[in-house]
Amino acid sequence: MNLKDLSSLLGLSQTTVSRALNGYPEVSEATRARVLEAAAAHGYRPDSRARSLATGRAMAVGLVVPVNSRHERVNPIFADFIAGAGDVLSARGYDIMLSLASGEDEAETYRSLAARGRVDGVIVQAPLIRDWRIKMLRDLGLPFVVHGRISGEDAAYSWIDMDNRRAFRKATDHLLDLGHSRIALLNGLRDMDFAHRREDGFLQGMAARGLSPLARHIQNAPMTEDFGYAATTAMLEAEDAPTAILTASVLVAFGARRAIEAKGLKVGRDVSIVTHDDVLTYLPNTGDPPMFTATRSSVRRAGEQALEMLLQLIDAPGCGPLQTLMEAELVQGTSSGPVLNKEPHAHAET
Amino acid sequence: MNLKDLSSLLGLSQTTVSRALNGYPEVSEATRARVLEAAAAHGYRPDSRARSLATGRAMAVGLVVPVNSRHERVNPIFADFIAGAGDVLSARGYDIMLSLASGEDEAETYRSLAARGRVDGVIVQAPLIRDWRIKMLRDLGLPFVVHGRISGEDAAYSWIDMDNRRAFRKATDHLLDLGHSRIALLNGLRDMDFAHRREDGFLQGMAARGLSPLARHIQNAPMTEDFGYAATTAMLEAEDAPTAILTASVLVAFGARRAIEAKGLKVGRDVSIVTHDDVLTYLPNTGDPPMFTATRSSVRRAGEQALEMLLQLIDAPGCGPLQTLMEAELVQGTSSGPVLNKEPHAHAET
DNA sequence: ATCGCAGGCCAAAGCGCTTTGGATATCGAA
DNA sequence: TTCGATATCCAAAGCGCTTTGGCCTGCGAT
């Protein structure tokens, strides 16, 4: 059932039917009602390719998810980010064009999406420290919003980000206030911009009290449970074991907790954990008080907001760079407590 | 840069340029070379909407991800499934149209994708016990592949599934062989078809040895860490505590382990865990031997295979229902061992 | 010299929609 | 009665591509 069929069926021109369906005023209410009814009855839905070709708008946004080429990992935060994005988009009649891009192909992916007219805008995920994508997207003239920010990028661009530096500064201060001074940071991959900012916040907090962490107490890796476990185990067994650990994700915190408990130590008493919590639906930090003391910022909310912004940029191309900084709140859980003044934990089991 | 520009620039007709680019034989090799070179030089990429309108093929497949309406949860397995799917698709020039659909809207989502010509086929995720989607998709005439199977569906349809029943039968037998008889099952949501099959395999295994589990030892919930923790804690504290636990995901297994260790018990000695492992990149079951004894089947591989099948159905619409059953392998980890003959664990700490 | 045929190219007709630029009818005001 | 608004509707021109159905040209066969 296409427009031609429908209009001849109604004894009207395609123009009139199209206008009736799209809410234009040049059509009588009686006719509009008749058209809408017929359209519903026959399940007519305009072909989006044809419509898109005629209007020049794709009614879709691109979500380019980088597949870490070294690790071939797809971060599960995308599932929640997309859930947020999807809500906003479907409410406005947009679709999501998903592209997985691994490293080299990524430039081609953007160019292709733009040139083939598949999308009206894109979301840039997982920005790196000096990300080349900004310049390329600007050159392409494709509206975009970065989920995260890019250190070393001078030009203005639209982004939504959590205040990673401040969040980790807060988390660090929290631990320092509890008397901890040997604090470790289990962070995301080194080239990720967010990891850089988190480390920054951590170091600033330490420096403000005249402290400086051991180099081996700052580790970067994909944020998996076994990274948390392995890194924590190693640190607890070495000299100058940390009394508190900052982790970049709940999954890593799970691993840290396992390592601590495997040593016969108690989380929140012998070793404290403060984690960042993206509020992923399948990794809830539940309990009252919650299991982990955490800096909390919903990635799903970020997805909603990011798309709100992108749609705004698409609707009004000139409306300048939009920027949203989300604040993470520190929630006190059971995983952090005052430092114990006793023998280093490393020897607790020896 | 569109076809018209490119062809007038080359002094050729649009027909010839189009044919040259698409590999038709009616164009001399010399001309073809000239065209390809010019296209590359000017970064020409055919507008996919126009092409799609002309050919009738969308060159995109739909991935409809159900957002559990009760729980608003997006299962992280989709991230990995999509990674597999993306590999296959991008190699063949297809794009992914992602739709999040929550319950009621889902029918509309499929209808809309089909009617608007946005996709050439779809993947159906998370099938329920008696899923209405099969009938609807068949009526729509849209090629589709189900990721999972549908009990109570008589008509033939294309699917790819892991042999859930056999996997859990294997896992159960493994535990039974180790002498366990009080085995619990922490399963996914009750209306999910896979959960049903897993329970089946479990019950079959038990019945084969004349055993039948306690009703409260079979639990259904979203597969989160805290479900594993809470359920395990409760069971260990009650009468007739299980000596072994079967979990439906690594995340749930994490929770079960935490509960066991919190009771001062040792996983693999006091209480065994066998989990299903979807081999999610961010939830690796690492170690040698691995941390968890598990039935292993890569969901990423399933994604690849599912799209291979879907593309086949799209290319040759009549090629009949395609069905792939994947076998999960049982890998022995450190989380399962022979049953201890001693006082019930419930009292271990009292 | 003529014919047939293949190779190489092109004009134009779609694909299904939106949108421009009228056309026609109606109606109150002059 | 005549005239401009208004309100309704319509024919046709795109959007950028593919594809059908030719049109030439040259060449070997008749």
TrEMBL record, chains A, B:
Keywords: DNA-binding, Transcription, Transcription regulation. Residues 1-55 form the HTH lacI-type domain. CDD domains: HTH_LacI (cd01392), PBP1_AglR-like (cd20010). This is Substrate-binding domain-containing protein. PANTHER family: HTH-TYPE TRANSCRIPTIONAL REGULATOR GALS, LACI-RELATED TRANSCRIPTIONAL REPRESSOR. InterPro entries: HTH_LacI, LacI/GalR-like_sensor, Lambda_DNA-bd_dom_sf, Peripla_BP_I. The keyword Nucleotidyltransferase does not apply. The keyword Cell cycle does not apply. It comes from Meridianimarinicoccus marinus. Pfam families: LacI, Peripla_BP_3.
